[in-house]
Amino acid sequence: TCDTGDQQTTAAVHLKEAAATIVERLKDVATYEGEDAVFECRLSQETAQDAQWFLGDVPLQSNEMNEIRVQGTRHSLILRKVTLEDCGSISFRVGQHSSAA
């Protein structure tokens, strides 16, 4: 606000958060049936709220079979006790960016 006594004007500052990018991409994982498979990637910034993991086209959530972790800029997916049905493409998407393994 600028106030000269008889006149006043006001303006506002609005900031948009810069979009996160993937700086460390997913790597392929080979493991044995019944073991855990761990996928990790790292983003350019911590505050990426639209990050999502997928098995094929199916979005994943944390539950007894899948553990999703976020530690700073590092995002991890742990598939617990994998079976042959878990074989396929794992992808991670944030904004317009994605990585697959």
TrEMBL record:
GO CC, alphabetical = cytoplasm
What taxonomic classification does the UniProt entry list for its organism? Answer: Eukaryota, Metazoa, Chordata, Craniata, Vertebrata
- According to the UniProt entry, the coiled-coil residues are none
Q: What is its main location?
A: cytoplasm
Q: What is this protein called?
A: OBSCN protein
Keywords associated with the record: Cytoplasm, Disulfide bond, Phosphoprotein
Name the domain of life: Eukaryota
In this chain the Immunoglobulin I-set domain maps to 21-94
Where in the cell does this protein reside? Cytoplasm
According to the record, the signal peptide region is none
Has UniProt tagged this entry with the keyword Iron-sulfur?
A: no
Which PANTHER family does the record match to this protein?
OBSCURIN (PTHR35971:SF4), SI:DKEY-31G6.6 (PTHR35971)
